[in-house]
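Lecture 7, part 2: worked example. A protein chain together with NAP.
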Amino acid sequence: MKLSYITGMSFDLVLFGGTGDLAWRKLMPALFQAFRHGTLPKDGRIVGVARDDLTDDAYRALIHERFDQVDLAKRPTPGEFERFAQHLHFLRMDLSKPQDFQRLAQWLGPRNADVVVMYLAVGPSLFTVACEQLAAAGLNRPNTRLVLEKPLGHDLASNRSINETVRRAFSERQIFRIDHYLGKPSVQNLFALRFGNALFEPLWRRDTISHIEITIAEDFGVEKRGTFYDTTGALRDMVQNHALQLLCALAMEPPINAHADAIRDEKLKVLRSLKRWTPADLAQHAVRGQYGAGVANGEQVPAYRDEPGVDPASRTETFVALRAEIANWRWAGVPFYIRTGKRLAARDAHIVVNFRPAPHAIFNSPPGTVNRLVIELQPRDGLQLHLLAQGQENRRATQNLAPVHLDLDFEHRFGSERVGAYERLLLDVIDGRLNLFVRSDEQEEAWRWVEPVLEHWQAEESNGPRPYAAGTWGPSAASAMIARDGHSWSEEL
Ligand code: NAP
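Predicted complex, written out as structure tokens:
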């Protein structure tokens, strides 16, 4: 699929944090893919910014070297890199020094590109100063777009404070808050399925859907981010943003049109409709865990508390399972189970929409089989409908049904190379499409739902997170939580 883009436009993309992990692991490969696919406007400059003292050539060499760690199919050939590298530049800046923003203004100045993107791939402690200084240097013109990475704050108050400062320098329509899960092809496909076809709409409600699971499982630990993670935890890192955005995509009403605010208004209504849990509810509906030593991917791995940068007495959760309910006519009584964690049994992010069983069985169907819509997010992107069909195993029996998985990606129709999440989102920023970005009121509402959970855990500090062995699916309390409703996680079926 080729994205539309404005041919002939010029852009400057200032990548603050241009030497950081996010830049070389996600952003540069995504920009390169757009370049390879011919969707990156040709008249564009990408300028990496950091405190290192690098020439343009040294920066290009650094990025080239880092491509060795990217999937083989996504690495540039030497010729391709040479052409891509013509877009790359480097500017040494310290974001805490106002005079450095004047140098940026001079660097950008004479060209006056049609679109200027300021991508803040730096720690959130630098967001406020960066926005203030961009404004002071006159770099917040109407053609400027500001991209903010997560985390946007630590709680509701800090989130509000960042958003208020940012909005003093930029208007809301210039601000692109990234949640890369919204850029995933299968989430796009979910929107297409729900709002481009009338078929599912009558089924998309409490009468037909029994429960929904959202799982974002990682098999790796905190890696080099121990210090950051230990002050954050799974609830802030994954639930407040990614998991709740996925929940919105599943539960929102059809928007009145495909414009950004129409979509965001509907997502906001979902967040506002989330049932607020009391401490007594949370004792049943929230489970936190922390990984101990174990075996992951065939290797012995250390406990969370023994990871570099982590407090040896840490009570930070590396696993969360939550039960959510949406108090509106469409969803009342349908549980949404959210689960995320590190060092789990697999790297596997998926959503399962479980439909209610047939009201009366006339065929011999395998026990426990129901219709499901499975949205795979990681490691594969995909959409599958699980149905029952006439089995062929026993040629004499006509009433034995077998489960079949109908692929709704239509790869054979559209080709298998899809636009990756960051590629898609970066092109949307350049083209000025806000549909897949998060508005500040959505973020605030998500914090309002998450904060009572944090407060509840703080209040019962003596309990702490439940231990689980690395390489498993988390504490057994997560299975008990869903089993209380008579359900089980998809891998337990
Ligand atoms: P990182 O590897 O630590 O990189 C930070 C970058 O910021 C480096 O290029 C660093 O270069 C630059 N920097 C730091 N202080 C600076 C200053 N005062 N002035 C100018 N540049 C400065 O961090 P990261 O993992 O890329 O993460 C960046 C942001 O994205 C964080 O907010 C993170 O939470 C978020 N994020 C990261 C990921 C990921 O996969 N890594 C995913 C989602 C969100 P110098 O030190 O040389 O200046």
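The chain has a mean pLDDT of 93. The pocket of NAP is lined by residues 17-23, 25, 50-52, 93-96, 121-124, 126, 149-151 (CB under 6 Å). Keep this in mind for problem set question 3.
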